[in-house]
Amino acid sequence: MIESTTVKTATTVAGQHSYPTQSPTAGVSGGWRELFSRHHAAAASILAGGVALYAMNVYLTAALMPSIVADIGGGRYYAWVATGFLTAAVIASMLVSRLLDRLGAARAYVLGFLVFGAGAVLNAAGPSMAALILGRVVQGLGGGLVAGLGYAVIRSALPERLWTRAAGLVSAMWGVGTMVGPSLGGLFAQLGGWRWAYVLLLLAALVLAGLARRVLPGRPEPGSGSGSGPGSGSGPVPLPSLLLLTLAAAAFSISSTVPTGWATAVCIGAGLALLVGFVAAERRGGATVLPQRTYRAGGSLKWLYLTVAVLCAGVVAENFIPLFGQELGGLGPLLAGFLGASVSAGWTAAQLFSVGIGSARGRARAIRSAPLVLVGGLVVYGLLQAEHASGPRVVLWALALFVAGGGIGLAFPHLSVAAMRSSDDPAEGGKAAAAINTTQLISFSVTSALAGTLVNLGTGGPVEAARYMTFGIAAITVFGLGTAALTARRVR
Question: Which CATH number fits domain 4-220+287-491: 1.10.10.10, 3.30.830.10, 1.20.1250.20, 3.30.565.10?
Fold first, then answer.
């Protein structure tokens, strides 16, 4: 909880339409103590809280889905619930810099939290799978905005010496949120009240909206150097790129609902072709989803974003882990939810260690080894799948998933800071950092749609379905071995 002196200080600064004072606390420099000092704790709490709410929502729904399908049906559209949310979040993330420009941090956050809350209301009242998917799309619009703001405001709200700690804190909230989300979802499912889980999300969004209105600054003045002042978010929305990306996610999602065979292959081929079209549109377009510097010859940002994408692909397995925990391990919804949090637990634990790596060589080594650890954990989890799994085998599942998540946590804070430092221009650095979130959302959206298809390909039963999904995602993350090596070379 934020102390009253912290709220008072941040509110006073917000009234002056500037970001919180960046003078360090006496006797500390760039550590956790300074980040949570009265000068910075209010801003850090909102940045972290918004991302935690977003992440908690994603995996709370994953834990609830078996109970939701049992109640309202629509099992064929299982993957669409995640894909609709994530695709909407990608679109919303494109509005982050523009809303910061027009509204300032406080109002942009309030808008995001209120839209997110409106989606939670639709989910809680949804009588059918179609209504639930609609609610998830609305939630995605608010959630994508809130999650994007968590990265975009770091550079302007905090001094450079705190960037690594703040990036680690914000990124760790994905881990914290995805530990709390499956656990809460499993608890509500166990109690037979899945709708009340979305009521809880609504209440949390309203609390964070009120806090953001009090402690975050308003619209910065022109020339303030914040990187989000007027004009920094101007420009057209990249509609061609967004359209191609949305169609690609839709094609992958449809592939999970058509009969297995040539129809599945056509949908997957169409999705891949649309992704190629997305990249082509990005290279040629004046307005782009990712920073235009991403596509310059010899630039390092493309390898950095590809590394983020393949690491985040590994997290998508969590959407189905609670389902397989119930089907193969005989777990109740609550324990299955905890099992689903194993990847995130590893992510969080490794990240808390990794943010303390100070040398360039150490950071490069962490980035380079991350995909290998992730792939190894996923492969072991897939090999351990069996029907009527015993308690010790379920524990081994959790350990393998924990190791897989550790691979993500090793690299993530250093990738975020590398993006921020990719340009000496504050506005460009802010855009590069915000694009980390956009890349995450793109990866989650596309991979979640593919995961549904991989599960359906396992027609021989739940063990085969689990292995198809796990090994398929592991195959995607293998590409990270090359992209991480190229990124680590730049970091060194």
Answer: 1.20.1250.20
* DSSP string of 325-383, one letter each residue: HHHHH---HHHHHHHHTHHHHHHHHHHHHHTT--SHHHHHHHHHHHHHHHHHHHHHHHH
Are 458 and 468 contacting, i.e. CB atoms less than 8 angstroms apart? yes
Q: Can you tell me the mean pLDDT for 331-358?
A: 84
Q: What is the CA radius of gyration of the chain?
A: 21
Whole-angstrom Cα distance, residue 49 to residue 447? 25
What six digits make up the tokens of 273?
Answer: 């072709």
Global confidence as pTM:
0.72
What residue has token string 């950095």?
Answer: 304
Domain limits of the chain? 4-220+287-491, 238-286
Question: Residue 310's pLDDT is what?
Answer: 92
Sign of CA dihedral 88, 94, 99, 100: positive
Q: Could you tell me the pLDDT band of residue 156, with boundaries at 50, 70 and 90?
A: low
| Residue-wise pLDDT tens digits, 170-198 | 777 866 776 688 778 888 888 888 999 99
Q: What is the pLDDT of residue 477?
A: 93
